[in-house]
Amino acid sequence: MGDGRPYRIVILGGGTAGWMSAAALARFAPATHSITLIESEAIGTVGVGEATIPAIMLFNQALELDEAEFLRETMGSFKLGIEFAGWLKPGHSYMHAFGEVGRQLGLLPFRHYWARGRKLGLAKPLAHYSPNELAARTGRAGPGAPGVSLPYAYHFDAGLYAGYLRRYAEARGVTRHEGKIASVQRAESGDIAAVTTDDGRSFEGDFFIDCSGFRGLLIEQELGAGYEDWRHWLPCDRAVAVPCAASGDFTPYTRSTARSAGWQWRIPLQHRIGNGHVYCSEFISDDEATAVLLANLDGPPAADPRPLQFVTGRRRKFWDRNVLAVGLSSGFMEPLESTSIHLIQSTITRFLTVLPGGPVDDAVRDGFNRRAALEFERIRDFLILHYWANQRHGEPFWDHCRNMDLPDSLKARIEEFQAACVIQPSADELFTEVGWLQVMVGQGLEPASWNPIADGLSDADLGRFLDGVERAAIEAVRPMPQHIDYLASLVTAEAARGAA
Questions:
Q1: 258 three-class SS
Q2: What is the mean pLDDT of the chain?
Q3: Residue 159 host element (H or E)
C-alpha cells in the first residue's frame, strides 16, 4: 500500500468457495496482505459438489497437501472419468474418461486413424483405446504399469473439504469471524469500503471476495454486475440431492444417468453415495423429480432430500470495482461435467496471477473478465452438446433439447468435426480434443472424412497399429490394484501415521 498498512482482503462466505479462496491466498499472498473470512453457521451452503476433474490435483499440490491425509479427511475416493448412461438413447452408455485415447502417429492425432479404421471395420469403440476407461470399467485405480501415469481426480465430501481447508488457512494466518452481513458501506469512489455484521462489528477492506452463493451479496445486490441467463440453452433449473448408504459398486468414476426430464448423478465416497436429480421444472414437477431420485438409489436415503433452484449462466462482470465473485456468486454451470469446484479453482488461480496490492487498473480488471467469460462460455458449449445430440425421440424434454438453436461457437465446432474429424480447442480451454472426441462420438456424431495423411498406412498396417494401441492400453492397466483396495491402503497408512 505504500503506507505500511496491510492490504486487507475480506472474504464473504465460507463453504468450498470461501475456504478454497482463503487457503490459496494464505499459501501465496505476500505477508503485506491480511486475509479475513466472514461466515455464518446459520446460513447453509449448497455443498453438493463432490466430483472433480484432474485439475484439482494441481490445486492440492500447490497447497502441498498430503494426498492420503486429504482422502482420509474428506472421505474421498478416486475418479477416472464420467459415465453417461442413456444420454444418447435408453440402454446406451459411454464414458468421458480422463487422459489419452489412443496415441498420436506422426503428425496426426489418433482420431483420424480411428475414423478411417471405423469406416473399414478395423477399429473398435473408443473405450478399447482408453487406459482410463479400461481401468474404470474394471474397478481399478492406482499405479499402472512401470512408467505409466493415468490422470485422475477425486470424489469427496465438499463440506469436509471446506473444513479441511479452513484448518489449513487458519493455521497460516487467516482470521475467521462468525456473523451475518447486515449492511454494506461504500466509499466515495463507489468501491466497497466495509461490511457490518448483525452484531455491529465493522470490517474494512481494500478488496472483497464474494463467496455468498447465489445471492451475490456484493457483486449483484450491491454492485449490480448483471447476469447472463443461459436457460434457453441449458433448460434444467432445479435439482434435488440426497445421500444414501454406501452400497453397490464402488466405482472409480461418476455416473450420470439420463432421466425423462433431466439426469441423475451418482458419486461414491468412502462413507456414503452422493446422489442428485437435475431437472427442468417445465417438464416435471418437484414431487415427481424427487420420487424419481428416491426410486433409483443404491441404498436407503441417509437424509431428507434437499431441493435447489438455479439459473444456469454467468455474471456479466466477475470482477467489478474492488469485488471478485467466486463460486456460485459468479455463475452456475450444472454439475454435468464436474466443473463447479474447478471454476472456483480457476477463478482464484487467475486472480492470484494479477493479485492487487493497491489500486487496480481497468485494463487488468477487463482482461480478467474477458478470460473468465470465455472459460464459462466454452464449458457452456460442452454441456449443451450432451443435451442437443440425443436420440431420445418422443420424450418432450429431450425433443426440446434436440431442437434448440445452438451458439455459433458450438455449431462451428460440430460442423468441423462432422465434416473432417477436426477438433481445434484453443490452448486455454478446459476440455481437450480428446474430451470433445469422446462426447461427440458418445452422443452419436460421426465424421464424414479424415485427414488424408491417415490414408498413408495400408489397411493391414492400420489394423496392426490399432491392435497395438489396444494392447498397450490393456497392459498399462493390468498391474493396477482394485480401487477399493488401493484407497483402503492409503487411508489406513495415513491413519497409522497419524496415530504414531
A1: strand
A2: 95
A3: helix 158-171
Per-residue CA distances from 219 to 12, 46, 197, 392 (Å): 11, 19, 17, 40
Catalytic residues: 79
Backbone angles phi, psi at 478, to 5 degrees: -50, -45
Helical (H) or strand (E) element with 161: helix 158-171
> CA 298, CA 248: separation in Å to the nearest integer?
6
Is residue 494 a known part of a binding site? no
pLDDT at residue 246 is higher than 90: no
Q: What is the mean pLDDT of residues 316-345?
A: 97
Does the pLDDT of residue 496 top 80, yes or no? no
User: Phi-psi region for residue 342, left (φ > 0), alpha (ψ -120 to 50) or beta?
Assistant: alpha
SS3 category, 333: coil
pLDDT digits (tens, 9 = 90+) for 86-110: 999 999 999 999 999 999 999 999 9
On whether 205 is known to bind a ligand per the annotation, the reply is: no
Rounded to an integer, what distance in angstroms lies between the CA atom of residue 313 and that of residue 330?
9
Cα separation, 359 vs 60, in Å, equals: 30
Q: State whether residue 196 is helix, strand or coil.
A: strand
DSSP assignment of 364-400: HHHHHHHHHHHHHHHHHHHHHHHHHS---TT-HHHHH
Confidence band, pLDDT 50/70/90 cuts, at residue 15: very high
**Residue 17, annotated as binding a ligand:** yes
Q: Residues 354, 26: contact at Cβ < 8 Å? A: no
Say if CB 466 and CB 124 are below 8 A apart: yes
The interaxial angle of helices 55-62 and 15-28, nearest 10 deg, is 50
Unique residue bearing C-alpha cell 490414408? 455
32 belongs to an annotated ligand binding site: no
Task: Tell me whether residue 100 is annotated as binding.
Answer: no
Of 478, 427, 463, 476, the closest CA to residue 113 belongs to 463
pLDDT, position 45: 60
| pTM of this structure | 0.96
pLDDT score for 47: 53
For cell 432445479, the residue is 238
pLDDT in tens, 128-160: 999 999 999 999 999 888 888 899 999 999 999
Strands of the 192-197 sheet, one edge to the other:
181-186, 192-197, 202-204
What pLDDT score does 222 carry?
A: 98
% of the chain at pLDDT higher than 90: 92
CB 69 within 8 A of CB 86: no
337 in a labelled binding site: yes
Rounded Cα distance, 187 and 299, in Å:
54
Query: Is 16 annotated in some ligand binding site?
Result: yes
Non-local (6+) Cβ contacts of 249 within 8 A are 139, 268
